[in-house]
Amino acid sequence: DGGITQSPKYLFRKEGQNVTLSCEQNLNHDAMYWYRQDPGQGLRLIYYSQIVNDFQKGDIAEGYSVSREKKESFPLTVTSAQKNPTAFYLCASSPGQRTSGRGNEQYFGPGTRLTVT
Amino acid sequence: KQEVTQIPAALSVPEGENLVLNCSFTDSAIYNLQWFRQDPGKGLTSLLLIQSSQREQTSGRLNASLDKSSGRSTLYIAASQPGDSATYLCAVLDSNYQLIWGAGTKLIIKP
């Protein structure tokens, strides 16, 4: 089955530790995205990648890092520099064509809920 | 800067009613608008995508409209069912090809 997987579903860490969230897709999509979702707010873009070995900061990149060594994978590291890391993290992918058509339609994974204490 | 607003933040209606969810955006320079559904603790499912040149899209009991000039979209749900209970999110693809999101409307359909 084609889709996007995120693991783990729940993640608990102590303050001061780095943690890496996994995102894998087998849709052959060029573009991948990481969002953060907090209660009562819209999704906020952390990082995105339009192509392998290239990625761009989103609106709230501070305290996060990513890599895109393979087309299928876009892991997100939440570093100890992120002041308020507890949130629901969503990964998405899209075919990636920069047009007004469905090439930009994003498909989402099930999310990872990170709790830092 | 593009801003997307969804009102109301929460809505509770009896089963069987038709209902409308609202989404407004501040900058009409968009490529498309999408409506998503999110169940508690889950990812997002795309419901409808309206291109900027279109006025509406329909899928089953769902109908989404777009009035770009006034910066508004509505999601109409006909004959609501308890299984429609979820949070509904709208997002616009802005001139930088970035999705800008509303905070969502939490919908509860009472049996």
Structure explained in plain terms:
The complex is a heterodimer of chains A (117) and B (111). With 117 residues, chain A is mainly beta. Chain A contains no helices and 11 strands. In chain A, the strands form 2 sheets. In chain A, strands 2, 4, 5, 6, 9, 10 and 11 form a 7-stranded mixed sheet that branches. In chain A, strands 1-3-8-7 form a 4-stranded antiparallel sheet, with no helix packed on it. The model of chain A has no long low-confidence stretch (mean pLDDT 90). Chain B has 111 residues and is mainly β. In chain B, the strands form 2 sheets. In chain B, strands 2, 4, 5, 9, 10 and 11 form a 6-stranded mixed sheet that branches. Chain B has a 5-stranded antiparallel sheet with strand order 1-3-8-7-6, with no helix packed on it. In chain B, strand 7 (62-67) and strand 8 (72-77) form a beta hairpin. Chain B starts with a strand and ends with a strand. The mean pLDDT of chain B is 94. At the A-B interface, strand 9 and strand 10 of A face strand 4, strand 5, strand 9 and strand 10 of B.
Oligomer: heterodimer
Uncertain runs of chain A are none
Q: What is the total tally of β strands of chain A? A: 11
Q: State the helix count of chain A.
A: 0
Specify the overall morphology of chain B. globular
Structural class of chain A: mainly beta
- From N to C, what is the helix and strand string of chain B? EEEEEEEEEEE
Q: Termini of chain B, distance in Å?
A: 41 Å
Termini of chain A, distance in Å? 36 Å
Shape of chain A: globular
Average pLDDT of chain A, rounded to a whole number, is: 90
Could you tell me which chain pair has the largest interface and how many residues each side has? A-B, 26 and 27 residues
Helix share bin of chain B: under 10%
Largest sheet report of chain A = 7 strands, mixed
Whole-number radius of gyration of chain A? 14 Å
